[in-house]
Amino acid sequence: MRRRAKPNRTYLRHLAAWSQIGGGLATVILMVATLLLVLFADRQIKQIRDQLNDQRQFESANLMLSFNQHFRNEKNSKMVDAIASGRPLLKKNKGPFTEADLDDYLVMFELLDTVYDNHLITREMVDDAFSFDIEKAYQNKEIQSFIAQVRSQENDNALYGGFEKLNREFSRHR
Q1: 97 has which bridge partners?
Q2: Phi, psi of 97 (to 5 degrees)
Q3: pLDDT tens for residues 45-93?
Q4: How far apart are the C-alpha atoms of 167 and 165, rounded to whole Å?
Q5: CA distances from 21 to 18, 26, 31, 55, 91 (A)
Q6: Which of 122, 127, 128, 167 could in theory staple to 138 by disulfide, Cβ–Cβ 3.0 to 4.6 A?
């Protein structure tokens, strides 16, 4: 029978030291890998955020183009011109438009206010594209009379509130 040799104590100490070093090295490698993963994830998150921001700006621009097309269509551009020049609007006042035409025009401001309130378009976009039209329409006595009449008939003072809110928001900066 052969006797098993006793391990050398020096060898055991070296083995223990290497296992501690190896364990420390594994920890360092794991930490470096984690750091690289975090940096990569952060970069990916920034790229996704930038893509979403670009998409949001694209959608905002499309909304603004849609509003601009509506406000600048043949019928509404004539209304904008009549408002800006102070000419009569409604047929009952010898103007070219019906009350339904004026209501359609004012409802677009209501929709514009909703889109703006929900941060789908920026303040600068509304200001650049529509602040003049908002202010001129709000200052128009015939429009004010029409709004008062509709509110009285419908017993609802909130009607056209978005239009009024847009005026408050954008006329004070002129």
Answers
A1: 90
A2: -110, 150
A3: 888 888 888 888 888 888 888 888 888 888 899 999 999 999 999 999 9
A4: 5
A5: 5, 9, 15, 51, 93
A6: 167
For residue 130, give the nearest of 74, 75, 63, 85 by alpha carbon: 63
CB 82 within 8 A of CB 141: no
Task: List the structure tokens of 28.
Answer: 């360092």
Instruction: Give the single-character DSSP code of 5.
Output: P
Neighbouring C-beta atoms of residue 167, cutoff 10 Å: 19
Query: Position 79: which residue type?
Result: M
Per the CB < 8 A criterion, the answer to whether 133 and 80 are in contact is yes
User: What long-range pairs does 47-55 form, CB within 8 A, spacing at least 24?
Assistant: none
Which amino acid makes up residue 130?
A: F
According to DSSP, the residues that pair with 90 across neighbouring strands are 97
Residue 68: CB atoms within 10 Å: 13
3-class state of residue 1 by DSSP: coil
- The verdict on pTM exceeding 0.85 is no
- Token readout for 11 is 């060898």
Amino acid 23 reads G
